[in-house]
UniProtKB/TrEMBL annotation:
It catalyses: a very-long-chain acyl-CoA + malonyl-CoA + H(+) = a very-long-chain 3-oxoacyl-CoA + CO2 + CoA. It holds the Pfam family ACP_syn_III_C. One of its GO terms (molecular function) is fatty acid elongase activity. Belongs to the thiolase-like superfamily. Chalcone/stilbene synthases family. CDD domains: CHS_like. The keyword Membrane applies. This is 3-ketoacyl-CoA synthase. Its EC number is 2.3.1.-. The keyword Ribosomal protein does not apply. Residues 402-482 form the Beta-ketoacyl-[acyl-carrier-protein] synthase III C-terminal domain. Pathway: Lipid metabolism; fatty acid biosynthesis.
């Protein structure tokens, strides 16, 4: 987005030759020209149908009883044809109704809010990092610099084990973190919806780095005493975009199994995945990742449409793992000292940009108005056939979506998407504020952002939401939701006690 401003001084002289006509090209507000074009193209079919409807009505008004009688006699003597025609019509309508995908509804969701004693302000974070004795001065300076530029505020959370000096990254502490996050989100979800654990037919849990035995999904089944035939899945190692993958898996299962509920739990575990070395590429996750998780309740029951918040419209997944650079750009490994961590490549942003391009190329035709698709196709045709130097047309996704939930992976990710998709500050506000308040909560971050939009009272009936997330592999995944009503914030939401303090200005 480019902001321009300035004063224009106009001098008026008596001499006729000095009088100039205004620059009409600059005077015309191209924004309104573009809006008019979109309106014309979007309503083109209607504009063609109106004359046809008028002519039909005029013709029908001139019909007399004799014409109607003649039509009746014609149909009576062709009774077999009429019966076959209507039988074929009924069969076709039945097939369409039976084979169309069943809608998937989002009844509600819940985001975990950790207790206040787990908050980790920047000064406390750095003091603890120094006291562990694992980081040299260069690494400490690097962490301080990352924190200052990250976009994180002073109220993010780290797990209990990281508050101890020295830290205690044990298996028991990691289980405790997972239990607190998952059970906290699920307790609130079941309380708000009134749905019983016995009613859940499908359970999908995703956590990238912590995969104990029994699995996280088994821990939930045991805790809430799910029924024995529940279809449970545990997704591991799939990165920050796994939340959308989990929703896609739940959707596919709901298309197969009738009249059931699905729960999707998305989280990440920090306790056993804190890096205690001095390789800078592996220190960045320490500074960005924070405690968080979400639980989402989905349904394919037609009766649930009345109380559902959203309907799932599209899921588009892009996997760039066939490319070696993309595969290794977010990579868990050991450093030279044998300490395990997640290394982030310097090519990460470029790879994310390529994955995004591929993803929106698939998503665009599904969501963009025909006017934008024509402009994109025309520009592509000119570029390929006539002038390779023509800049590709960037579709205006603001015409397709009312709200954007961009994975709060870091400030640079949000900045790049704001720039490349030509979004306004209000469109990335939810992402920036979620990053500021909760940090990078991995696959659950898009739900904290949606909760922010609801808490601000901005979600109206018919609004479309684009959730977009990036993750190791490398993957870029999108989910599109449509609001079925004016959405009100649910009880005990993550923003309940602080929404009036936002938005805040993030220091550059």
């Amino acid at each position: 987005m480019v902001n321009s401003g300035g004063d224009v001084a106009v001098g008026v002289q008596i001499h006729h030759s000095s009088v100039r006509l205004p620059d009409f090209l600059q005077s015309v507000n191209l924004k309104y020209v573009k809006l008019g074009y979109h309106y014309l193209i979007s309503n083109l079919l209607t504009l063609f149908l109106v004359p046809f409807i008028i002519i039909t009505l005029i013709q029908f008004s001139q019909t007399n009883p004799q014409d109607i009688n003649y039509l009746w006699l014609h149909l009576k003597y062709n009774l077999v044809f009429v019966i076959i025609f209507f039988a074929a019509l009924v069969f076709a309508v039945t097939m369409v109704v039976m084979t169309r995908p069943r809608p998937v509804y989002l009844l509600d969701y819940s985001c975990y809010k950790p207790p206040d004693h787990l908050k980790a302000p920047a000064d406390q974070f750095m003091r603890h990092s120094r006291l562990t004795g694992d980081f040299d001065e260069s690494s400490l300076k690097f962490q301080r610099k990352i924190l200052e530029r990250s976009g994180l505020g002073e109220d993010t959370y780290v797990p209990e084990a990281m508050h101890s000096i020295p830290p205690v990254p044990s298996m028991a502490a990691a289980r405790e973190e997972a239990e607190n996050v998952m059970y906290g989100a699920l307790d609130n979800l079941f309380r708000n919806t009134g749905v019983k654990a016995k009613d859940i037919g499908i359970l999908v849990v995703n956590c990238s780095l912590f995969n104990p035995t029994p699995s996280l999904s088994a821990m939930i089944v045991n805790k809430y005493k799910f029924r024995g035939n529940v279809r449970s899945f545990n997704l591991g190692g799939m990165g920050c975009s796994a939340g959308v993958i989990a929703v896609d898996l739940a959707k596919d299962m709901l298309l197969v199994h009738r009249n059931t509920y699905a729960v999707v739990v998305s989280t990440e575990n920090i306790t056993q995945n804190w890096y205690f070395g001095n390789k800078k590429a592996m220190l960045i996750p320490n500074c960005l990742f924070r405690v968080g998780g979400s639980a989402v309740l989905l349904s394919n029951k037609s009766v649930d449409r009345r109380r559902a918040k959203y309907k799932l419209v599209h899921v588009v997944r892009t996997h760039c793992g066939a490319d070696d650079k993309a595969f290794r750009c977010v990579y868990q490994e050991q450093d030279d000292a044998g300490k395990t961590g997640v290394s982030l490549s310097k090519d990460l942003m470029a790879i994310a940009g390529g994955a995004l391009k591929t993803n929106i190329t698939t998503l665009g035709p599904l969501v963009l108005p025909i006017s934008e698709q024509l402009l994109f196709f025309a520009t592509l045709l000119v570029k390929k056939s006539f002038n390779p130097r023509v800049k590709p047309y960037i579709p205006d996704f603001k015409l397709a979506f009312d709200h954007f939930c961009i994975h709060a992976g870091g400030r640079a990710v949000i900045d790049e998407l704001e720039k490349n998709l030509q979004l306004l500050p209000v469109h990335v506000e939810a992402s920036r504020m979620a990053l500021h308040r909760f940090g990078n909560t991995s696959s659950s971050s898009i739900w904290y952002e949606l909760a922010y939009t609801e808490a601000k009272g901005r979600m109206r009936k018919g609004h479309r939401v684009w959730q977009i997330a990036f993750g190791s592999g490398f993957k870029c995944n999108s989910a599109v939701w449509q609001a079925l009503r004016n959405v009100k914030v649910s009880s005990n939401g993550p923003w309940e006690d602080c929404i009036d303090n936002y938005p805040v200005k993030v220091v550059s």
